[in-house]
């Protein structure tokens, strides 16, 4: 008797296999420089232009130890953390508040405000950087955390994303809460924000990574070595050590490590959160 | 407990008048269904009572209080929405007690209320679950629980069963009827499903284009519809309509339907023959042998449901639906004749108003 419930043999799909191969090759090409940077940072200086093996023959942490002991890396880390956390919190919170106001509240000038935000999205930050520098210098905020943070708070994308998500929520959620006696603050903090937790998490991670990696503005705003962020600080490492590739790349790995770790840690959380905010099953 | 009184209620969106000078009185403890097709203004009317829609003109009273411009939460009403509007990030218990939590009630009081309501609605094992882990019927019960916990004077339901399948809808209808019997509160229920309205309500308000077409007890609307719209809307399967001509006589209305003439017990003010429309429900039409009845026809479709059979007969005035004896065996293509129970035939004038019976 034949087994009718047997799983049919999987057919070989040439198209899918080729696509998978292509994806693997593309990923390898993208990842190779990162990998090469890591292995180079694990080699002795005299080996960097001699040892081309994929795995270092004599791996060492000497470059990392040197960077940590002979630079202001811990302070730069602290500065980067203060700036990134501050920017992330303020951008996400203000973006959510503004998105909620434009999406849910009726007030004079609402449409004009929305158009202004959309218009600001079309102006590249680099076009404003001189103005930012002059203003921050005028208010004596150069070489301060606040001076680095303030111009980085211009994030119209966050407002746009929140507005679109708040617009997309069925109006019955708002009305049910209004019937229950919710104020606008309660609506925001107890209904709209928690229901879009996935968006908030995703935006927070993206903003954090962007703030941590930002270079141009912190480079201009923090001229004092003790106020530099990691991304700015590692350029000083390069200046100090000349072309010591191992040390420079060890600095780059250390600078990128927290962001990569944060993303890897929160990746699953982002997926879960977005699934949750997708709402009730049908 | 409270009655609901609407006086001269109107709602305009720009130049469009959705509700037009509407007067309605819903007695204390009544279950009133607002029935009508899509776009007739029934949901707008409910939302105006809830306070979710502003009033362009007129007055709303709940009990002894005028609430026309009072905030929704202070009207003493609770609403159950069509899509349940349960917060996906909260558990069943948190959803039920959301209003208490907003008001800052103590956790113990909230827990006690959640348990009490869950017991009433058989939701006790589900209190810790989130809405995504519930079936459609369970979600609907949670939405009702959220209304119950507020202990409102008036419950408002906006098509609460329309997202459920037929079987579940039947069960939930029974639960709502039981709830109304237990609580004795005033309930206003919006639906486009006349079966829901007929089975649940003690008063049905049929709305057409923002105006009340007829309001009354379900069977009054079924047996004595005020006009063609109500006659066509109430009853499933729908009433059959046949174009005819009639003139008024001392004995009643002399009606000419095709080649047949008959006298119907209806009163009209016109003496000269005029076009009218006859309305007859499927159960008031009789199938007879070809050549015997009032209207000849040919069987088009036979729907045997077991307990009853619907026979669709093609006539010169269109298709007529007949509810016949389930034992009767008929096949499509057979010539038959139709006769009507004269007392049960409704007569509508050219404007669609029902002519009064003699």
What does it look like?
- The complex is a heterodimer of chains A (282) and B (358).
- Chain A is mainly alpha-helical and 282 residues long.
- Chain A has 2 domains: 14-60, no CATH class; 72-277, MetI-like fold, CATH 1.10.3720.10.
- Helix content of chain A is 72%, strand content 0%.
- Chain A has 13 helices and no strands.
- In chain A, helix 1 (14-41) crosses helix 13 and helix 10 packs antiparallel against helix 13.
- The longest helix of chain A is centred in the last third of the chain and has 33 residues, at 245-277.
- The two termini of chain A are 41 Å apart.
- The relative contact order of chain A is 0.13.
- With 358 residues, chain B is α+β, with helices and mostly antiparallel strands.
- Chain B has 2 domains: 4-233, Rossmann fold (3-Layer(aba) Sandwich); 240-348, OB fold (Dihydrolipoamide Acetyltransferase, E2P) (Beta Barrel).
- Helices cover 23% and strands 35% of the residues of chain B.
- Chain B contains 9 helices and 20 strands.
- In chain B, the strands form 4 sheets. In chain B, strands 6-7-8-3-9-10 form a 6-stranded mixed sheet, with helices on both faces.
- Chain B starts with a strand and ends in a 10-residue tail after the last strand.
- The chains are: A mainly alpha (282), B alpha+beta (358).
